[in-house]
Amino acid sequence: MLVAIGKGIELDIDVTRFNTEVHDHIVRTGLRNLLMDAHASVTAKADPDNYVTRSRQMAEKKLASLYAGVVRAQSSGGPKAPTDPVAMVILRLARKAIISRPEIAAASKADRLATINRLAGEYAKKHDAQLRPRAQKIVALEALEAEPSTTISRPASPASTLSATVKKAEPAAMKKKRAA
Fold it and tell me: Do the beta carbons of residue 76 and residue 55 sit within 8 Å?
């Protein structure tokens, strides 16, 4: 198993070499961290009467998603950013559509992002059928733009064709400062 540990370092770990005690410790520590992260956003300041109950609910929801095989489910603040490019564009389009809603302006600065994410997620789910074809076109165009050098052809008129070469931008040369 390849594990990224930061600073660009990845270690190839043979988990079969761990004895039972070490394996149990790793699982316990990992689960503890995942479940703590799941309820970290629930604070006594935000909900003084129910924060312990709400924290337990969030942790149990995370555990249920792990049992169901879902690794990256977000338990609060709206949907986790999807990894599917089309779904990412749908969410981007949904954010543009809801950004001027009064609920966002009324939300406190601390809650604004969570409100935007929640409303965008709801909008994306409700309008998926309308947004998906447009999102697929955008993903296709962005994929073309991401290629380093591509020739794009499109008819300018029925009688002629226009071709353009798109090149990847390179960093501009910087002048060195002279020592005084």
Answer: no
What are the tokens at 83? 């990894």
pTM of the model: 0.41
83 phi, psi to nearest 5 deg? -95, -15
Q: What is the DSSP letter of 75?
A: -
SS3 content of the chain, % helix, strand, coil (to 5): 50, 15, 35
Contacts 24+ apart (CB under 8 A), 26-35: 34/62, 34/66, 35/59, 35/62, 35/63
Question: Residue 113: which of 121, 52, 88 has the closest Cα?
Answer: 121
Share of the chain above pLDDT 90, in %: 23
**Is residue 179 scored above 80 in pLDDT?**
no
Structure tokens of 47? Answer: 């909900």
Number of helices (H), then strands (E), in the chain? 6, 4
